[in-house]
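WARN no homologs supplied; continuing
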Amino acid sequence: MTQARDLYLSVADTAAKLLAAPEVAEGWDQPSALAKLSVQGLAGHLAGQVFFIPAVLAEPLPAEPAISIHEYYERVSWIGSDLDTPFNQAIRSGGEQEAADGPAALAARVAACVEELGTVLPAAPDRLVRRPTWGPWSITLDDFVTSRMLELIVHSDDLAYSVGLPTPESPARAVETVVDLLSRIALRRHGATGVLRALSRSERAPASISAL
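OK structure emitted
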């Protein structure tokens, strides 16, 4: 099994445990830490980062040419986009729908999917994958798994904060991988000087170097 898949499975298992926490169920109908998104919607979106993996594995091999994960983040249109764009509205409504059967049902589905992926993902052949919302490109399965790991780590923090729980701990290598991806996105969005100052000179750092 590749390191990316091993790390993803560990992070997905942690997310599954967070979704099963009673605090998530108690805060289900409350606003989350993310604007215009309820705890239910955020939980559904987090769960989707697990459900995406069997979905892409079930799809035929794409004909679109492969790009790297860094090129993928250069091309996606949602980074830094307005909350009311059709894409972001679809993310919110999709999260709500994914979690429509309630916290217990969602947590059970995620736990079952993570357990299944523990067998399926290590044995999956190297291949290209693609989502219908993308442009004319594809990425490797391991890069897609890595992109979902970023989503799991970031949104697990969002969900935990929303319901008053500490941020779940992820393996150090997983966090390093995600920070590397976010740093490169931040460099493209804010430029080298701003990122360097944010990391080394707080007295003249920009107000934000948010990657997303």
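The mean pLDDT is 96.
OK
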